[in-house]
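Deliverable D2.4 — example input (structure tokens):
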């Protein structure tokens, strides 16, 4: 694996002005526009799906297991950085996953994809998540796992329709455990005021509460908990790939996290001068978070610094919503 030396990263960080005002940042001129899956054309959806199906044909960059491919690298990295937690429950959650989605988009381009990352607007679909366009069996990601298909054994519910029904991820959490893509949608329990796929936890009213926080150290944990975590639990349940730390096994992960990024981007755009580089809180190691914090990618891509991923039209990024 190749790692950037921390000194190199520190030098890169010093190259930026201490004043992170937008006026001093290099901006892109033709940003890609990330759109909702529901609003994408059939051709755009097919192109995206074909690129995802190409990733398992590409060799792993990590070479951890003889079974693994470039597709598996994403689940492996996420699992490794989740135990102990280095990318959740702390300020870096949002910029790290913003970078992770970009690395995935770049990987799709290596498979001929020319579009931008797309998102699942789970807020718009929160009243009936199972009816969302993302689950279409032809121009989507397929549906729920099956109780009757025992191919994976009792611990995983195999997805039996859609373009990814034969997808076979290598990892379950951090262990080598080849299995067919699995989902275990959380059922609704009206008697307990629990909507299907926990949709009530990412409803418009919940998002209004999340967005009411005006400082980053309050906003990021609010976004990570109920809406973000509820989507993982609602889709993955106890026997689906969106539940374990290897959740990028399910390609819906990246549409989910692009939506998380969109919510953060919208929050930043409400007060761009004050919020674009708003980044504060306490890391899991007890240290105060800074814009020079290093975001590890363990060889899948170069390690990066937070500062470079705060502005979607400056630094190293060039996209909008």
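Example output (designed residues):
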């Amino acid at each position: 694996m190749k790692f950037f030396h921390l000194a190199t990263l520190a030098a890169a960080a010093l190259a930026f002005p201490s004043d992170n005002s937008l006026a001093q940042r290099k901006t892109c001129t033709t940003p890609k526009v990330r759109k909702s899956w529901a609003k994408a054309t059939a051709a755009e959806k097919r192109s995206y799906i074909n690129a995802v199906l190409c990733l398992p044909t590409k060799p792993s960059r990590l070479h951890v297991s003889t079974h693994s491919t470039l597709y598996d690298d994403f689940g492996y990295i996420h699992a490794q950085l989740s135990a102990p937690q280095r990318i959740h429950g702390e300020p870096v959650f949002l910029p790290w996953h913003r970078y992770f989605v970009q690395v995935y988009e770049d990987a799709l381009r290596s498979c001929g994809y020319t579009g931008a990352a797309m998102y699942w607007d789970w807020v718009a679909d929160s009243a009936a998540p199972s009816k969302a366009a993302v689950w279409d069996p032809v121009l989507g990601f397929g549906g729920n796992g099956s109780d009757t298909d025992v191919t994976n054994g009792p611990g995983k519910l195999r997805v039996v329709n859609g373009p990814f029904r034969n997808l076979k991820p290598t990892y379950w959490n951090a262990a080598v455990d080849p299995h067919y893509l699995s989902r275990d949608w959380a059922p609704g329990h009206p008697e307990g005021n629990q909507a299907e796929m926990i949709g009530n936890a990412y409803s418009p009213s919940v998002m209004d509460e999340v967005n009411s926080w005006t400082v980053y150290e309050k906003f990021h944990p609010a976004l990570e908990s109920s809406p973000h975590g509820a989507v993982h639990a609602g889709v993955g349940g106890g026997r689906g790939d969106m539940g374990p730390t290897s959740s990028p096994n399910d390609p819906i992960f990246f549409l989910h996290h692009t939506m998380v990024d969109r919510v953060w981007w919208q929050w930043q755009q409400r007060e761009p001068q004050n919020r674009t580089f708003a980044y504060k809180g306490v890391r899991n190691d007890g240290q105060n978070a800074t814009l020079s914090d290093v975001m590890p990618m363990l060889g899948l891509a170069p390690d990066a610094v937070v500062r470079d991923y705060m502005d979607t039209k400056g630094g190293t990024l060039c996209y909008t919503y």
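The mean pLDDT is 92.
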